Amino acid sequence: MDTNKVTEADCHTAHLTPQLIISKKRQNDEPHTAAEISWFIQQFMKGNVKDYQMTAWLMAICLNGMTNQETAALTEAMVQSGEVMDWSLCESLPAIPHKVDKHSTGGVGDKVSLILAPLVASFGLLVPMMAGRGLGHTGGTIDKLEAIPGYRTQYSAKDFAELLLTEIDDESGGKGPVGVAIVSPSQDICPADKRMYALRDVTGTVRSLALQTSSIMSKKIAERPDSLVLDVKFGKGSFNSNVEESIELAKNMIQTGELCGIRTTAFITRMDNVLGYTVGNWLEVRECIEIMRMGESASLTTLCWQRSEDLIEVTLALAGQMLVQGGKATTLKQGITMCKEHLLNGKAWKRFKEMVRIQGGDLTCVENYPDAKYSVSFGKATPHPPKFHTSENH
Question: Catalytic one among 32, 200, 224, 347?
Answer without folding.
Answer: 200
